[in-house]
Amino acid sequence: MEISPKDKFVTVYGRKPVLEALDDPRLEVDKVLLAEGARGPAAKEILDAAGRRGVRVQRATAQRVKVLAGNGRHDQGVLADVVAPRMRPLELALRDRPRGVLLLDGITTPANVGMILRTATAAGMDGIVVPRRGVASIDPLVVKSSAGVAFRAPVLRCATAGEAAAQLRAAGYPLFALDAGARESVYSFSLPSHAAFVLGSETSGISDEVRPHVTGWLSIPMAAGVESLNVASAAAVLCFEVVRRRG
User: pLDDT digit string (tens) for 202-226?
Assistant: First the structure.
């Protein structure tokens, strides 16, 4: 299948994030896009850094850079497409039957998305579905919150969380969702050989799009009257428990 550039690259924008990407030898930068009007020391610094790495620099209108960055206030007239070697479409990934998949549903806080990417990757989850709509985009804030792990996380792409949930169920995956009131615990439920887990939004939980596809609800036991955890903390508990039980 044809893979869209959006499913191959993490686009970072702003002078500092672009320079950091160019200065990191572990990262492969596909190209840099620089606004036509960008001149002076800042532009020269980027051109020199790209030259040292042999990265092509394309000029475009400032408006084009804003559109591609998706953030008109902070792009500073420059963006870079960084190769994300483990990023691919969910549809393609399902052909390889990943054992454990995490689905983000309506999580809009960049810090939470970044921390979840870092945690799930560290735990060894096979895929983290980050829909293109309804979830914070993988931008410099997410990259920073992930401490750079976002570039090499096993990110799986699709249009919406509802579409992802339907694809996972059609592929035979049970879909478990976290809910503080669920009777079954993440520590005691029967873990299938292949399973998907959905994390809902910080404010409204699992979306109406995804809810019909959920096959089981799980809770994280709480003590001392604490009602719930931040979604990134809950993801950490879930991911490491799944990996622990799989040995």
Answer: 888 999 999 999 999 999 998 998 8
Q: Could you say which DSSP state residue 191 is in?
A: -
- Tokens read off for 62: 């400032």
- Residue carrying structure tokens 């976290």: 178
CA 60 to chain centre: 27
pLDDT by residue (tens digit) across 1-25?
677 777 889 999 999 999 999 999 9
CB contact at 8 A, 132 and 159: yes
Distance CA 82, CA 190 (A): 39
Helix, strand, or coil (residue 163)? helix
Pairing type for strands 127-129 and 155-157 reads parallel
Report d(CA 148, CA 25) in Å as an integer: 13
> Contact, 177 vs 200, CB < 8 A?
yes
Residue 35 and residue 77 in contact, taking contact as beta carbons nearer than 8 Å: yes
Q: If we measure between CA atoms, which residue out of 143, 167, 137, 158 comes closest to residue 88?
A: 158
The DSSP code sequence of 197-246 is EEE-BTTTBS-TTTGGG--EEEE----TT-----HHHHHHHHHHHHHHHH
The tens digit of pLDDT for each residue in 25-35 reads: 999 999 999 99
